[in-house]
From TrEMBL:
Domain ABC transporter: 23-253
Superkingdom classification of source: Bacteria
Subunit structure: The complex is composed of two ATP-binding proteins (PotA), two transmembrane proteins (PotB and PotC) and a solute-binding protein (PotD).
A single MF term (Gene Ontology): ATP binding
Positions of transmembrane segments: none
Protein name: Spermidine/putrescine import ATP-binding protein PotA
E.C. no: 7.6.2.11
Family: Belongs to the ABC transporter superfamily. Spermidine/putrescine importer (TC 3.A.1.11.1) family.
General function of this protein: Part of the ABC transporter complex PotABCD involved in spermidine/putrescine import. Responsible for energy coupling to the transport system.
Catalysed reactions listed for this entry: ATP + H2O + polyamine-[polyamine-binding protein]Side 1 = ADP + phosphate + polyamineSide 2 + [polyamine-binding protein]Side 1
UniProtKB keywords: ATP-binding, Cell inner membrane, Cell membrane, Membrane, Nucleotide-binding, Translocase, Transport
PROSITE patterns hit by this protein: ABC_TRANSPORTER_1, ABC_TRANSPORTER_2
Amino acid sequence: MKSLGSIRRSFAPWADPASKPFISFKNVTKKFGDFTAVDDLSLNIYTREFFALLGASGCGKSTLLRMLAGFEQPTSGEIILDGQNLAGIPPYRRPVNMMFQSYALFPHMTVESNIAFGLKQDGMPKQDIAERVAQMLKLVKLEKFAKRKPHQLSGGQRQRVALARSLAKRPKVLLLDEPLGALDKKLREETQFELMDLQQQLGLTFVVVTHDQEEAMTMADRIAVMSYGKVVQVATPAEIYEAPNSRFVADFIGDVNIFDGTVAAAEDGRVRVETAGGVPIRMASSEKLSTGARAAVAIRPEKIRVTRQAPQHAPLNAAEGEIWDIGYLGDMTVFHIRLKDGKVVKASSLNAVRAVEDPLGYDQQVWVSFGEDAGVVLKD
Ligand SMILES: Nc1ncnc2c1ncn2[C@@H]1O[C@H](COP(=O)(O)OP(=O)(O)OP(=O)(O)O)[C@@H](O)[C@H]1O
């Protein structure tokens, strides 16, 4: 998915004990009355990182961003940016800029005046403003639109003006609150890649708030998954997807099958789980689990095979069922398979070949199966 993947692959300052974080939240709590919006949260973000805060509505992600911008003060804890404690520093004196979902462009001003606005307020000399505005217009590819008013632009173009305006002051950190929320799906996807390119070119640190997991997965170097004011997991998109640290994260990101059960044996990096539905599962796992403990096995639909014949390893990591539902999505097909105990398992397969000679059909008896490294074992 990531076009810049090959360049970015070696970018992992968080994995290097020698690198110093650029932004640190240290035990930050924010209360509104007796309501705790952010709860004793600690988090490090590194220079040039594209960092995403992801979570359901109300989990506290915007509050966290607003505290970094200086629009809210933490009730307790510290926020450090580039070695400086931000306590008491007003928003306009912080080296951060925030871009809002609504873009907040001035409707009566042209594109170039919108971009120039903050620079004028800062008292930048006229000639320098003109140069900077031209540079910004070029960056967001809107040179031809300089004299237009916001209402004469498309949603995507307005979004780029807002971006140019937030970047004009050369903030060290750009904070983006649902930056692509107003765009339709296609434009949103294109703009995601534009944003990533811009961030790379300018070498900035981006912190983006989103509730759209695909957006976070596509753009971010790392994602913090939040729930009720706490960070549940911070990791790269691939780690979050392939190795969620909890049932919450597994469930929140993408589609997943969860098999609940009890640990029957755990040794040599493998765990055997007797599931409630009677499917015996053996899974590679580095988790420390004791026999008899409750556990859940999470397996993504694309890791589940659907076959007419029982696999050789059956009944281990395999179960018989019936095709209950078929969703044809063009690029892939999703099967819902009802196992004998009534549990419905989701399996997906890529439609890499155009015509299927003998496709699986409704009500057909099939086997679902998976390998020992297809999923993760989660402590309950
Ligand atoms: N000024 C305020 N006064 C009281 N409660 C607030 C205030 N600002 C936020 N909250 C509450 O704090 C919680 C977190 O809000 P926040 O805006 O950070 O959530 P969010 O994760 O960004 O959600 P969304 O995706 O809906 O914007 C919410 O329950 C919200 O109602």
